[in-house]
Amino acid sequence: MQRLRDNSHIIKLLIIIVSGLFFWIARLPSLFEPYYYGDEMIYLSIGNGIRQGLSLYTELYDNKTPLLYLVAAISGNLFVFRLLSGVCMFLSVFFIFGIVRNLTKKGSVLPFYSLAISTVLLSLPIFEVFIANAENFFILPTSAAIYFLTRYLVSKKQTNLFFAGLGLGIAFLFKVPTIADFFATVGILSALASLNFNGIKKLILQSLIVFLGLITPITLTIIWFFFNNNLFDFLSYALFDNLGYSTSWSGGESTAFQLTTLSLVFAFSVFVLWFLRKSGKVNELFVLSTLWLLGTLTGALLSSRPYPHYLIQTLPALSIVTTILFFSSKKQQVYTVFVVAIYLFFIQKIDFWLYDIKTYKERVVALATYSKSNDQYLSLFGPDVVQNYEAAKIIKESTAFGQEVFIFGDSAPIYAMSNRLPPFKYTAYYHVDEFLNQDEICATIKNKKTPLILIDKQRGADCLKTLSTRYYVLNHTTDKYEFWFLATKE
Known about the structure:
Layout: H1 2-27, H2 38-51, H3 67-75, H4 78-102, H5 110-121, H6 134-155, H7 158-172, H8 179-191, H9 197-227, H10 231-246, H11 255-278, H12 284-300, H13 315-327, H14 330-350, H15 357-369, H16 374-379, H17 385-398, E1 405-408, H18 411-418, H19 429-435, H20 438-448, E2 452-456, H21 462-471, E3 472-477, E4 481-486
Parallel strand pairs: 1-2
Antiparallel strand pairs: 2-4, 3-4
Helix pairs in contact: 1-5, 2-3, 2-18, 3-4, 4-5, 4-6, 4-13, 5-13, 6-7, 7-9, 8-9, 8-11, 8-12, 9-10, 11-12, 12-13, 12-14, 13-14, 17-18, 20-21
């Protein structure tokens, strides 16, 4: 018997070691990928602006809450940015492990199975887990929040509820859809509550404590922006713009229908799980993982957009549900089948895109074997990547740090690589196209005497061509861009 116990410890240790090695070996090639993915380029460009002292939202525009841009500013380059996203996901695995351990018997192997499964799910490239999106970062505070919720369920210490809310508030400052995790938390507390006066009173108090933790970092952020005189821009762009963004996608069924249906399913699940829990048919871990999965699924579907990295929000909860499906009692496995079926039903309604595994493998093989030249390798990530690298090199060699550059084309990657910024707050060209007309663009360039203009040969704008030929000198051309430098005399 003692030998079996010793072997059990060895197996558990091996699961931890193998999971850790698998996680980082799977992720290693992505740390050396080029600057190409649009969203990452925007975050790094804005991060460069923050490092140069520009004001977020007032002088630098995007529509997410601020912590993602601060991490990009701290990172300074793509390698560190992706490394930090990997660290956040890796730490999330251990919070998932802690969640399961808190709600299972001492010595149970379920926490170790959940650790292995979450490691695999968070290492699947089909979900874009190797790209530094907001989801990669915010699953750390959301997983920490649910961990503290389980600590409360075990110890009944109300400070754990506050810390749970604090984690949710920090996650919200990475991306707004994490508010769904708050409602999942309240749903979990509701499903575990007693339906009497004292039980309802206790539930209200619990929810208020979590809410207090949630609004603490958000309130501090609002105060900070207020004293920096850009509160209006923060509220307009980071919060209110998300409402329009969430309802502007036309793919799949309507956002309102999806959210209404899923919200009803969630509410009904709270009711059903309360009865199942009271009758002893399911345990706390099943209740928590089911409602957390349905809650995070609501957040992932908030905009009805089919981007695969949105599903990362659901993966911590899905890993626990999967653990129950394969390794729990048969009775709970049957119930878990229904949960997974609901999850898959709503996902297929959106028809999520999946990251191309074949392309990813080709890139990894090319990197590992040196079978392609540098330009050939860069071309695997898109037809314009080589040209963008060449343009960024020319910009860095011909302009000083702090000088502004306007790129009329695929701008964000070049801004990120060259560590230069445009003469207005929009680093992504689609934002320029959405918020500025040609006359405004040209007037800004002329008034600020922007030292360098890059014009994509395939695009072009009449006023920009007139401006460049009148006040600028064509100094260099590539297959994609014309480089117009400000003339020394107008």
